[in-house]
Fold:
Amino acid sequence: MATFTWTAQLTTGTLTIGATDKVGFYGTNFGDAITVNSYQDSTHIENSSGTHLCTTNHVNNTKYLTSTTVSINGGGSQTLGASVPTTAQCPLKINFSHTSAVATSAGKFWADNGSDVNTAPTDVTFQAGEQSDTSWTAAAPKSAAVTLTDQASATSHDFYIFCSASPTAVGDKTAFRLGIELTYQ
Amino acid sequence: MEKEKIYTIKEVLDLVEADKKYYKMAGKGLVVGGINVADLEQTIRIPKSAEKLVIFAPKLETIEIEL
Structure:
């Protein structure tokens, strides 16, 4: 059987992201607004009611600076590369497991508006990449997805994702969903 | 071979010291770790849970590398 498990990688420890939980992009702290056309300064996990779940250690924050640079957890600008961010610094680890060993290919990670994979999130610019990518991808909608590296045959596959979001208008942005798909054989 | 690292197919073949015949099979049925290989610059990540890497090419001996 094939199973996806989404995990938030916190500054210390990890937190499994449940099916109805949400990834929240905020200003300095949970609940803080992000200035329009700026990117988030913190990333959090909340449940479907908006209750903050990563209250002690927050999710690693990867903030888009330029198409090839990132600020990790408020640090200075770093050029994206083989170890920037490291796998442990990526905010999301998405695991694909299968009862028998399989190879994965044609993997994609993207954001959409929550109902249609072909429509970008409403009033949000979304940037993402897979660990070791050397540039950000404006990964919305699905047609502009991050391409995930093929993985050799195994029973468990981890995909480490860094991501960043910026509002293009004021107000809460909830027409916003993250997605992954791949082929396995 | 280091796990959770990205390699080009050429790097994989170099690391396992494959015969030059395998390099020429890219796009002609070469399969590395279950991935069909179209060209030698194609990249592949070795998952943490991978136990072996199998390199298959038509009419050539299958290579199995314990990881």
Summary: The two ends of chain A are 12 Å apart (CA to CA). Chain A touches chain B through 18 residues (CB under 8 Å).
